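Batch job 17 of 40 flagged for manual review because the log was empty.
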Amino acid sequence: MNVKNKQEKKGVVSPFPHNLFFEKRTFVFFSLLFLNLVLVNIVDFFDLSNYFSNPGDGIDFKEDFLFIIVFFGFVIPIFEEFVFRFWVREKISKVILPLVLLILYIVYLDYHWFFNITFVIIFVVHVFYISQNTDKTLIISLLNGAVFAIFHIVNFPVNELVSGFIYFPILFLPQFVLGVFVCFIRKFGFRYSVFYHILYNSLLILIEYVSVSI
């Protein structure tokens, strides 16, 4: 009896294909995840604390661990994947709700008005480009990754970004690479990109938790 029949007999319904772990996509998935985690830890060696505040300042990983793992490990990845990747390789009409949520989120953050308007325009333009070039996996992954990285500018005050702009390549490299990898993984299905993002964020949180607990 094959794996699929055994799972069906036991009443197990998996959100992933039954042959997930026997396909090349599994190797690609976990290889990219490993590279992603290595990269973000390499970037951490560049101390930019003199130029940029840490978005995690004020968060106690020991006291707030449950909140952090739920919110940053699950809620944020699902939200970001819905906004940035749900509509990729789908009908362009599927971007309407993600775009509305993105605008509402930006308004809620109350960031600089110039950035808000500029980013929404960039986002819309990149949506139209991707919708017309769904077969160009590498290009749309790079473009989507760049827009995803730009979005994370909201993590830092404007004055810090102005004074430390020469460090942008280092500061936003992890988000850019994550966006590229997740958009590439998206071609396997939306659930893959969501799972990848959740796993990536959760592992980073666990690594940080262990480091502050030792």
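Reviewer: the log was empty due to a logging misconfiguration, but the result itself is present. The CA atoms of residues 45 and 202 lie 21 Å apart. Unflagging and moving on to job 18.
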